[in-house]
Write a structure and sequence with these properties.
By secondary structure, this protein is mainly alpha-helical. It contains 2 helices and no strands. The longest helix is centred in the middle third of the chain and has 134 residues. The protein is rod-shaped, with a radius of gyration of 60 Å. The termini are far apart.
Length: 156
């Protein structure tokens, strides 16, 4: 066999192999590589989109937390104000009730003092009558001398 013929046969076989590879083998490989590249690109785009959505969600959560904190602070402030108003109202009611109790007690004390004075006047009038009886050594009638006794009571 001739070296040139072998070389020529190898060139022809190589050409056929190259043509076969370029026609039937290479297109599916390039298609698979292109699909993989597009999937990777889509995955990267989805990851970027997910990062952006995560950042937006974190921002939204932070805003909602801040809003909730503000709302809670406002509610606490309102509750404290309401509690202060309730305490003030309770103090006022207690003060009014205490003043009423003191006024009732004073009125009752005044009434008891008046009753005690009346009872004392009655007793003094009785003692005066008994004293006069003993001085005069005779009985003084309370019915007969009622006017005199009433005047004596009023002077006491």
């Amino acid at each position: 066999m001739n070296l040139n013929a072998t070389l020529f046969a190898q060139i022809v076989v190589f050409g056929i192999l190259w043509w076969f590879t370029m026609k039937f083998v290479w297109p599916p490989i390039t298609k698979a590589l292109d699909e993989r590249a597009s999937k990777i690109a889509a995955g990267l785009a989805a990851a970027d989109k997910a990062k952006l959505e995560l950042a937006n969600a974190n921002k939204s959560v932070q805003e909602q937390l801040a809003q909730s904190r503000d709302e809670i602070a406002q509610r606490i402030s309102d509750a404290e104000k309401r509690a202060a108003v309730i305490v003030d109202e309770a103090k006022k009611r207690a003060s009014d009730e205490a003043a009423k109790i003191v006024a009732d007690a004073k009125a009752e004390a005044d009434q008891l003092a008046v009753q005690a004075r009346e009872a004392l006047r009655e007793q003094v009038a009785g003692l005066a009558v008994k004293g006069a009886e003993q001085i005069l050594r005779r009985e003084v009638s309370a019915e007969v001398h009622a006017d005199l006794l009433n005047r004596l009571k009023s002077e006491l």
